[in-house]
Amino acid sequence: xxxxxxxxxxxxxxxxxxxxxxxxxxxxxxxxxxxxxxxxxxxxxxxxxxxxxxxxxxxxxxxxxxxxxxxxxxxxxxxxxxxxxxxxxxxxxxxxxxxxxxxxxxxxxxxxxxxxxxxxxxxxxxxxxxxxxxxxxxxxxxxxxxxxxxxxxxxxxxxxxxxxxxxxxxxxxxxxxxxxxxxxxxxxxxxxxxxxxxxxxxxxxxxxxxxxxxxxxxxxxxxxxxxxxxxxxxxxxxxxxxxxxxxxxxxxxxxxxxxxxxxxxxxxxxxxxxxxxxxxxxxxxxxxxxxxxxxxxxxxxxxxxxxxxxxxxxxxxxxxxxxxxxxxxxxxxxxxxxxxxxxxxxxxxxxxxxxxxxxxxxxxxxxxxxxxxxxxxxxxxxxxxxx
Length: 387
Prior knowledge:
Layout: H1 5-9, H2 14-27, E1 33-34, H3 46-55, H4 69-83, E2 93-96, H5 98-110, E3 119-124, H6 129-136, E4 140-145, H7 161-166, E5 167-172, H8 185-198, E6 201-205, E7 232-237, H9 238-241, E8 250-254, H10 256-265, H11 275-285, H12 289-312, E9 324-328, H13 336-344, E10 348-349, E11 351-352, E12 363-367, H14 372-383
Parallel strand pairs: 1-10, 3-4, 3-5, 5-6, 6-7
Antiparallel strand pairs: 2-8, 7-8, 9-12, 11-12
Helix pairs in contact: 3-11, 4-11, 5-6, 12-14
């Protein structure tokens, strides 16, 4: 039987490859310190676990795709507190089973593969799911390379108007995975204007918005656009903010026409968030105090690693956000793959930047998700690494 040609042509998901490398080394008796995936190892705050446990029902029923009013209200409250943006919980907000699921399925809902306007633009290096979602939706994926010289931010004025006329969906991601680069309100305003001029959806993946060590990150959504938020969507997640990756909970907010379209689409793929997960998510979005502790934890690890970088003369080329260090390949190494392979000899697992798309060939991504003890152990190993 012939499979979907997109599946047959697809390369292995990069992080599945990393997990296999880790498994093989550990099977040989090695202790691998894993800094490859953005999967926090911190305990989920107890009050969130308790909220989920208390909501597990004796009789289980199918949840609503729209989510409960309590969750949507909590999301609207978070966006108002954090960004000053007023949202109507009924028309502007839709819960997701994590941003990865929401990003992938958004392509299926919003793109007409028979149209000439079916291009998906993303900026690389990037989270691989933007390209994967485009491929499975029958869209044309168009990657634009980000550079260190431009601080890993796109130049809206340099975007080809003919390309934008063919664009159905454009993905932006700030704070940026994998570089940690940041965007400002001016960049978002320029991109919103292009989305409306050329009639494409500007989709902003903001799942690292609360992991900032300097100026808080803005959102692509702004109060002046309420209540229409024309052609704009913002995606957020509990995963990084609240150490809830296994809960698979996030949301999308913005243009009510697009939210309505996604709401109509989602019952077909059965992705309604379970009520007990909704209870934990509602508690997470209603509380900001625990996020302060999460950010402080990553700040300590970041400072430990950047202190090592200063002593060794290594370069972090990203910004002051996310829990990633974007390590420029030092002299003496050909590229990110060679550096990552050399680090494996120290049983340190990092992600080659080239696995995250064009523009990543001369960097590796160091995810500060291991415990502080393991971070210190990794630093001890790296002290012996050639400068």
